[in-house]
Amino acid sequence: MSKQILVTGGTGFIGSHTVVELQNSGFEVVIVDNLSNSKVEVLKQIQEISGILPKFEQFDLTDKQKVKDFFQRYPDLDAIIHFAASKAVGESVEKPLMYYNNNLNSLMNIMECMIEYKVPNLVFSSSCTVYGQPDRLPVTEQTPRKEAESPYGNTKTICEDIIRDTIAAYSGLKGIALRYFNPIGAHATAKIGELPLGVPNNLIPFLTQTVAGIRPELSVFGNDYDTPDGSAIRDYIHVVDLAKAHVVAIERLLTNKNKKNYEYFNVGTGNGVSVLEIIKSFERATGEKVPHKIVVRRAGDIEKIYADTSLANEELGWKAESTLDETLLSAWKWQKHIM
């Protein structure tokens, strides 16, 4: 009998790609999503790619009673991948209470039910924001976490602590936090990709919408950082590579290959790329020009960060495989598909 996995936020950008990879690997998936930043049509697109329509329930995970009702109706869950969270850095600076309420309460409701209904395994969607602006690069898992630059980043730090402390207190629980760097790109079929509702908060959808003529120009936030070209540096990973890391993490927990009850891994490419280099790579990969202008720095942004992924490579047997040009071309194909 196939293992049953709850994927919260499973109609979102990373969640939908992970659902596809899970189903392709033989897992049965149940999605819970409140559709606050995604569309129900994604379910059909997942089915078109994988041949399987995942089970789906729409409700808000901050509603404790609804979470409890869900666990009562799904007594055979083997593991949970928790994506569901508010995730825009800038918005979190403006609306901190919304971020703390949503991101913390949803996790705590899930973990309370994991204990009550004996669901032992959790993979958590964390972020490199827990490192703040690190003193040395690349960051390893031993790099000290710093005070977050935004309420969003702080919610990820606090959520990691909640998971660590809860697992320490309850011997039946195991968990893996995957600290993402910057997921971009889209599925090779161009049937799913990043589809923010309203004005995008992330670089790549804003870039592709600009090239598509939906927005007049791309804003590059700052050209006075201490980087080779003055623009901020990040580690951009193809979303499908990231999705595959979740499948590996789930399999690690289900087969008891984890070395501790709580583990955490950096999930990136190991390469730092600036915003201006992203623009050049996109233009090279697609043959399209990117209208852009330099504007002032954005609140909550850090200067530069990229991963040392050797622990994930060795322990999980996972490695990011896509090139930056391939990844950006997939994002452009997705943009053209939804126009």
Task: Walk me through what this model shows.
It contains eleven helices and 13 strands. The protein has 339 residues and is of the alpha/beta class. The protein folds into two domains: 4-184 and 236-267, NAD(P)-binding Rossmann-like Domain (Rossmann fold, 3-Layer(aba) Sandwich), CATH 3.40.50; 203-233 and 270-338, Alpha-Beta Complex (UDP-galactose 4-epimerase, domain 1). Helix 5 (96-117) packs parallel to helix 6 (151-169). 50% of the residues are buried.
Number of domains: 2
Low-confidence stretches: none
What is the correct CATH architecture of the largest domain?
A: 3-Layer(aba) Sandwich
Oligomerization category of the chains in this entry: single chain
Q: Name the beta content range.
A: 15-25%
CATH superfamily of the largest domain: NAD(P)-binding Rossmann-like Domain
Q: Summarize the biggest pleated sheet.
A: 7 strands, parallel
Radius of gyration: 19 Å
- The end-to-end distance, rounded to whole angstroms, is 41 Å
- The helix tally amounts to 11
What is the CATH C level class of the largest domain, in words? Answer: Alpha Beta
Based on helices, strands and strand pairing, what is the structural class? alpha/beta
Strand tally: 13
- Reading the helices and strands in chain order gives EHEHEHEHHEHEEHEEEHEEHEHH
* Shape assignment: globular
Helix content: 40-55%
